């Protein structure tokens, strides 16, 4: 009786410890995933805003080239 009780108590302790560690690891895992997701969204937003700025700059250059296409020297300056 005594040995069985001690053994079952020990097994119960190990099960509770294992479940606790799994739970803590799960929380850490979800926090890490959430952090990477936030970082990914930040990088994606930076990229999209950068592309918007680049597209606006390219449109401006194209309009300027179309406007003054007659003058070769200004066209060469704008290409650089």
Q: H/E series, N to C? A: HH
Q: Can you count the beta strands? A: 0
Mean pLDDT figure: 78
Name the helicity range: over 70%
Number of helices: 2
Most strands sheet: none
Rounded to the nearest angstrom, the radius of gyration is 32 Å
Structural class: mainly alpha
Proportion of beta-strand residues: under 5%
| Count of domains | 1
Unreliable spans are none
Distance between the termini: 90 Å
| Outline type | rod-shaped
Topology, please?
Layout: H1 2-67, H2 72-79
Features:
80 residues; mainly alpha; transmembrane; membrane; transmembrane helix
Question: How do you describe this structure in short?
Answer:
This protein has 80 residues and is an all-alpha fold. Helices cover 92% and strands 0% of the residues. It has one domain (2-79).
Give an overview in words.
With 80 residues, this protein is mostly helical. The protein has one domain (2-79). Helices cover 92% and strands 0% of the residues. The longest helix has 66 residues, at 2-67. The chain is rod-shaped. The mean pLDDT is 78.
């Amino acid at each position: 009786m005594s040995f069985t009780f001690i053994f079952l108590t020990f097994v119960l302790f190990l099960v509770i410890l294992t479940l606790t560690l799994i739970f803590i690891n799960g929380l850490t895992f979800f926090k890490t995933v959430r952090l990477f997701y936030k970082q990914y969204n930040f990088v994606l937003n930076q990229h999209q805003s950068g592309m918007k700025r680049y597209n606006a700059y390219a449109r401006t250059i194209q309009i300027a080239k179309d406007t003054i296409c007659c003058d070769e020297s200004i066209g060469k300056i704008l290409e650089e």
